[in-house]
User: Fold this.
Amino acid sequence: MSDDRLHPLVSGWPAPAPKPVRLRVSVSAEAGLRRGHPWLYAERIQEQSRDGEAGDLAVVFDRKRAFLALGLFDPHSPIRVRVLRARTPGPIDRSFFRERVGAAVARRETLRDSETDGYRLINGESDGLPGCVVDRYAGTAVAKLYSHAWLPYLAELIEVLLEQEPFERVVLRLSRLMSAEPELLRGLYDGLTVLGEPADATLLFRENGLLFEVDPVNGQKTGCFLDQRDNRARVGILSKGKRVLNVFSYAGGFSLSAARGGACEVCSLDQSAPALAAAQRNFQLNAKLPGVAAAAHETLQGDAFVALAEMAATGRRFDVVVLDPPALARRRAQVPRALEAYARLARLGLDLLEPGGSIVLASCSSPVTPEVFRAAVVKEAHRCGRPLYDIEETGHPIDHPTDFAESRYLKCIFARA
Ligand code: SAH
Assistant:
């Protein structure tokens, strides 16, 4: 049964070759696959039965010719195979997708309430669908793909998704690497609405009872940073009667949570004017909530590293300072510089914090481990005479599961100083 509402470029995508590519791999890659690692890098392949095209299935055998793993083959990616089935072979068909999507939906059962209808529905590898992320924003699903290998399976995936959740719209987002090779996309492109009416006005969704607009076509990631939902709620709890500074505010997620939690003053700081304009609209959307109506909200555009120092110099102080910078390290070699930047941000934040106030510092740099991040921040706080106490750390929320090391990126320190 194919859904005739699906974009013809998606429903008409040619089927992959009926026979899988057969592979033999290095000893270390064998060990990794046995441990359940979901990726096979190209340089680990020692024998390959044929060239293969994106979306062909690949079967990896060990040296005794026993089955090791079955996955999606992608000749255009350094991650040559993304594992769908490890240890036990089986078909990749509609019931396979039903089982994986069903498990992902069930995992998020506790999130399905009237207060929150924006969350990650499928988190790639950690939900058994490597290279594929689906975020839900109310009636819209945003599917973000990281490999061309998904394109032949996209129609089936969406159809299965629609069996579980009656989405009115599905938007396709493509990773930067995929968009860089338009000739492989047969007309598909980043931001294409593949089911339903294109979102003309900005779409609305709810997070813990707060309304937010989202632009799933042009917004960063799939439109919003859904991974910070729990941390935003925690900031709300800290904010009653407080002056709150939200640095790297984007569309004001932490700011609104602080305001709803009873903050008297909220300042959103970001370098992006459109992000700050969205933050202002989000405050208007929630103006009926007493906390939001009562809080004085101010936006400040500028580079955080410069603006924070300027604010401190004018003698301005806050009771809660939240810093949620973009990823500062993508590779291991960038870790030392990222740690310096985190330390600098901690110092700049502490300079603006009243004694006894709360500092919240997040990191989404995956090569920076929670231990190293915490050590750098604690050390810097000590060095500037504002040692941290009552330290708490949070990691990934329930809808962003992380089943292998490379997928762990988010950590957030809550402390008083
Ligand atoms: N805290 C946000 C997400 C932050 S994303 C939320 O809860 O939704 C990171 C934000 O940092 C982006 O909005 C980006 O515009 C901003 N940004 C990046 N570099 C910056 C800089 N040097 N100074 C100020 N803002 C910056």
Summary: The chain has twelve helices and 20 strands.
